[in-house]
Amino acid sequence: MAQPSPPASPAAPPASPSPARAASRYRAYRLPAFVLAALLLAAVGIATVVGLRGFAESAQWVEHSYQVIAEIESTLAATRTVESSARGYRLTDRPALHAEYLASIPAALSHSAQLIALTRDNPQQHRLARDVERRMRLRLAEIDRLMELYARDPQQSLISGRTSTGTEQMRALTAVADAMRENERALLAARDLRTDRNAALLTALVVGGLLLALSLLALLMLSLWQENKRSRALERESRQALAELEASAAERQRLTERHRSLSHYAGLLQSCQTLEEAMDMTAHVIADLIPELGGRCYILRASQNLAETAARFGREAILSADLLQPNDCWALRRGQVHRSQAHDGGVRCAHLERADPQRAAAGDDDPRWSLCVPLMAQNTSLGLLCLSGERAAREADLALVQAIAEQLSLAIVNLQLRETLRVQSLRDPLTGLFNRRYLEENLQRELLRCQRRRLPLSVLMLDVDHFKRFNDTHGHAAGDALLARIGQLLQELVRNEDIACRYGGEEFTLVLPEADAEAASQRAERIRAAIAATTIVHLRQTFGPATCSIGVATSSGERDTPQQLLQIADAALYRAKAEGRDRVVGGDRAAGAVE
Questions:
Q1: pLDDT tens per residue across span 193-203
Q2: Beta strands 584-586 and 548-555, pairing class
Q3: What is the dihedral of CA 402, 406, 409, 411, to 10 degrees?
Q4: I need a surface site. Which of 203, 266, 343, 509 has the fewest CB within 10 A?
Q5: Which of 158, 153, 143 is nearest to 104 (CA)?
Q6: Distance CA 72, CA 84 (A)
Q7: CB 442 within 8 A of CB 499
Q8: With the CA atoms of 490, 495, 497 and 503 taken in that order, what torsion angle do they form, in degrees rounded to the nearest 10?
């Protein structure tokens, strides 16, 4: 209850204005305040757009700097590739290295030209880029001189290579490239500093403008609330709006929780190592988010002719087959989501159980429904997500299921691609043996392990005799069949701890941990005899037997390196070929050093 006013007195302060008069006074300031708030918001928006454009431009320049740095590294790498392939050709006289040398020169020139093009906006860097190109061309010219000298006199080429100025040329080229790299890094630092300063200024402007605009808007809302607080109609509308807002907030909270769970699910999918993990996690997520639904996940086999159950969740209202053919499902046929009711016999998928004939004859509507969501990525069918329920489904639940299906499809593609890349990065596709990259990574580890335990390690270098003549006579397909058969033999004749690799072409390398020279020579003799007794059948023709030459190298000291072992085994292999082929020759360290 309001307190009675004190009696008037000459010293009493003037009475406060009435609410109506105060509302009238506030109403006069509403339009200017609204205009000012709108101008502030517009200024904040313009400043934000300008700032974002500036950030985009800064990002472009940062990307440009990284491109310049990448081209610097590519130019140096291409030059080293030319240098290494030329040196390898002069040392081994292999045609493949000569072809690699010829192919790597245009790549080096292309990278230097690209570097010059990227630095046209910076005179200092452009001048250094031209200096890089000039020094690279000098180095290429020196290499070409050595190659021409090798063609005339190989021995003189080796002597000239030791006294060549190639090292100084390469060191000078690297110094110029390092200077360019440091300049680009300095530019990056300056651009980062400028971006941080602009970001701080933009943040202060946006925050200040928003606070002032929000303050004005708050005053306007306060004015409106004071004017209309006594209106019963607005009070009823406010209560109704409040109830709707609470319901909307509850729904929004539920959707937010689902989106959070979906985001968490998508993150977990990226960490899955196998399809089984992804399928099990998907089943748990659907069961947690939509417990009233049941179903299963199918995965299509690589042959694309059969889909099999990979995971189940909940209780299925309409049972589905454990195995199904793609033509049995309308979703897989059309590549689109297919939804059907239990009584829709004409458009139901063939893999779902049939409707109850007695219930259909009685005219009872069956409320059960099913939903088939195809798992597709890059226009390729990967599997199927089949769900069913007893009661009508909410559209939000169906949208959630489709979102889960999209995430699962991407995860399946990534897992399949990851598995394919893993196999391709380790195995030679023709022979099934490990490739040269795997050999280089694992030979070092095995050698260090044997050296720590003071155990021997042997390397066998195997080459098929007269393989080029075999290819020329019978064709490359027959040659591939022969190499595949040899790869199969090597897999059968090595131990589980041995490493059998295709080194390149018709050359194979075997790493025998804990095997001394005698054991390695015996193993090599068994391999040579097995290959000599092997024939192949290709296009109904029998070819073979083929012979091979094998060089053996054994590590016996703590200072041995993988390169030394491979060089010794390679030198022994060449001696085996020189002595008549079809034999095993042990490696000699002095001979290996000369080679």
A1: 888 888 888 88
A2: parallel
A3: -130
A4: 203
A5: 143
A6: 18
A7: yes
A8: -10
For 593, residues 6+ apart whose C-beta sits below 8 A from its C-beta are: 567
Query: What residue segments make up the domains of the chain, in order of their start?
Result: 24-206, 269-425, 436-594
Distance from C-alpha of 112 to C-alpha of 133, rounded to nearest angstrom: 6
Helix (H) or strand (E) holding 459: strand 457-464
Q: CA-to-CA distance for 567 and 595, rounded, in angstroms?
A: 7
**Which pLDDT score, from 0 to 100, does residue 24 have?**
56
- b vs e for 327-349, b when ≥16 Cβ sit within 10 Å of the residue's Cβ? ebbbbbeeeebbbbbbbeeeebb
Question: What sign does the dihedral 136-137-143-147 (CA atoms) show?
Answer: positive
The topology (CATH level 3) of 436-594 is Alpha-Beta Plaits (3.30.70)
Most confidently predicted of 13-27, 156-170, 201-215, 411-425: 201-215
The two three-digit tokens of residue 360, written as one number: 């259909």
> Among 148, 244, 506, 579, which one carries the catalytic annotation?
506
User: Would you give the distance in Å from CA 310 to the centre of its chain?
Assistant: 25
Average pLDDT, the chain: 82
Q: What is the pLDDT of residue 8?
A: 43
The answer as to CATH 2.60.40.1930 being correct for domain 24-206 is no
> Considering the chain, what percentage of its residues have pLDDT values greater than 70?
89
Out of 3.10.450.60, 3.30.450.40, 3.40.190.10, 3.40.50.261, select the CATH number for domain 269-425.
3.30.450.40
Most confident of 91-100, 230-239, 484-493: 484-493
Q: Which residues contact 195 (CB under 8 A, 6 or more apart)?
A: 54, 55, 58
Whether 550 contacts 584, CB under 8 Å: yes
What is the dihedral sign for C-alpha 420, 305, 378, 272? negative
Mean pLDDT for 317-338 is 88
Residue 506 is among the residues annotated as catalytic for this protein:
yes
Sheet holding 507-513, edge to edge: 499-504, 507-513, 457-464, 548-555, 584-586
Q: For the chain, how big is the Rg over CA atoms in Å?
A: 39
Answer yes or no: are the C-beta atoms of 368 and 390 closer than 8 Å: yes
Q: Which two tokens stand for residue 475?
A: 């064709």
Alpha carbon distance 508, 526 (integer Å) = 15
In tens, the pLDDT along 79-119 reads 888 888 888 887 888 888 888 888 888 888 888 888 888 88
Is 37 within 8 Å of 220 (Cβ atoms)?
yes
Would the pLDDT of 405 be above 50? yes
Helices (H), 272-349: 275-289, 330-334
In this structure, of 261-275, 464-478, 499-513, 549-563, the range with the lowest mean pLDDT score is: 261-275
